[in-house]
Amino acid sequence: MTMLPSIGKPATRALQTINITTLEQVAAHDEKTLLKIHGVGPKAVRILGEALIEQGLTFKESPQNSMAPAIDFAVLCDIKCDNAPKKRIIRDYLIAAASGDRAILEDLLEENFIWNVPGEFQIKGREAFITEVLAHLQEISTLEIQTLLTHGKEGSSHGTVTDKQGKHVYYSDIFTFKSNKKDAKISELTSFVVIEK
């Protein structure tokens, strides 16, 4: 493993926060994604690119012709979803909720969708949920999806959301789908959230 070159304290801290501490880990990401991470600027990415070349490595290629909406934050997710439709649904839900993409949320959620935050509140109805998400939308720097698991009608994910000031929100979501079908919509979500103080 090759340690990171000297890219400045803010960029080094930003990468360490999302567990990127070696050039090999940097090579798993594309330049555009890295530039969206709070604290990582063009100079740091240039230095990383030069260090990668010296080690015979390169940045990951940026996805071409993506059907996903344009977002202004980095999405870090190592999980390939091509053969796992419900994992893709969860990933797309997480990105849509973080970006406030009403159309995608409407497409992925059942009309009678229920959102539970134990000990806090319950929201019933897709429209009420989307209204709540849009009312509390934050400008974020990074959405790190650490796990995506699905089985039958159930799924889960956990990860970290980092805002533009570098503050972290740690989440764990438990999903229930309407049916076992691969294209079933999400009918219920239970969320656990820890906000960094």
UniProtKB/TrEMBL annotation:
What Pfam families does this protein map onto? SnoaL_2
GO terms for MF: DNA binding
* Record flagged with keyword Protein biosynthesis: no
Q: Which UniProt keywords apply?
A: DNA-binding
Q: Which SUPFAM superfamilies match?
A: C-terminal domain of RNA polymerase alpha subunit, NTF2-like
Give a yes or no for keyword DNA-binding in this entry.
yes
Q: Which domain of life is it from?
A: Bacteria
Per UniProt, residues of the SnoaL-like domain are 90-179
Record's protein name: DNA-binding domain-containing protein
What lineage, starting at the top, does this entry show? Bacteria, Bacillati, Bacillota, Bacilli, Bacillales
